[in-house]
Amino acid sequence: MKKILLMAAMVLTLCGSANRASAYELQNLDNTPIENDFVLGPGKTDLVLEPGEKSVQQIAVTNRLGEDRDFTIEIEDFSGSYDEDQTVVLFGEAKGPYSLKDYIKPEITEFSLKHGERILIPVEVNIPDDSEAGGLYASVLVSTVPSTTETKASAGQTRIISRLGTLFFVRVAGDVNESAKLESFKVSDTKYGFYEKGPIPFEIALRNDGNIHIIPSGKIEITNLIGKKVGEVTVDKYFAMPDSLRERVVKWESASLLGKYTATLTLDKNYQQKPNESEKMAVSFWVIPWKILLVALVSLLVLWRLLKFMLGKFKFEIKKK
Predict the structure, then answer these.
(1) Are 146 and 154 in contact (CB under 8 A)?
(2) Distance between CA atoms of 285 and 283, rounded to whole angstroms?
(3) pTM of the model
(4) Residue 43, CB-side half-sphere exposure with 13 Å CA sphere
């Protein structure tokens, strides 16, 4: 009886191992072009989880390098930044202020793909029972390992390894601190203090002092000198990390502009606890197509001189007769 139970346990163990080993899926994509790159998706995953809850998501990696390649997966925390040139900061082996790296685990961390192959890999996110409400953030980074040929060719040289990342945004349910403020809304600086033509770039700066990321969106209405609405720009949804300043540039595409305009931004913060929270800010700017106006002025001046010359000649001929 003991032998039978032992054999049954071994069979169950092997079946469980087989299921875990085959959890990922390989797909062959016909007619995949050689783009000398690989593709990772999705770019972003949003989750809302309770303390003690787990979720299994999936990432996809496609080889378009034109040859067989080895890949590795690493997990790094990330955060926002007060530097306008850095939307996201990766922490390497260190932990970030809203660390998720210890709670996220891909099914495998090393794999190989032939050209035209895609792999679907489960990624488990497991939130501890004692987690506090707020945001947790990590990036799943996929890197290529250079082929043997490339390694030999680059011997003694700096080796460049391509790396792509997909961002995981986890909201631990509970009473979070949603607190963001519109720092500024302005047009980009110009050489002469006015624009010669469109498009007109609007700069939005949003400061997030809360402990959770938010997904703001909104619109910009443009009116002319007499207050008539002449245009509208949609501010698509984007993310703003906690403890960071997120800048966004939105352009107004318009061909023929002349005079003074006022742009009014209405930014919806899209809080989950206060869904109707929004802020407004306005900025004025001038559009003076001086080159076109200069050409028009010169043309009018030439026309006026020509007309004056013709009238003078016409009067002279009348007097002569």
Answers:
(1) yes
(2) 7
(3) 0.77
(4) 2
Distance CA 132, CA 114 (A): 43
Q: Rg (Cα) of the chain, in Å, rounded?
A: 31
Which amino acid, one-letter code, is at 178?
E
Structure tokens at 22: 């085959």
Each residue's pLDDT, cut to its tens digit, for the chain (321 residues) gives: 444 444 444 444 444 444 444 489 999 999 999 999 999 999 999 999 999 999 999 999 999 999 999 999 999 999 999 987 888 999 999 999 999 999 999 999 999 999 999 999 999 999 999 999 999 999 999 999 776 555 454 444 545 568 999 999 999 999 999 999 999 999 987 766 768 777 999 999 999 999 999 999 999 999 999 999 999 999 999 999 999 999 999 999 887 788 899 999 999 999 988 888 999 999 999 988 745 555 556 666 666 666 766 676 666 555 655
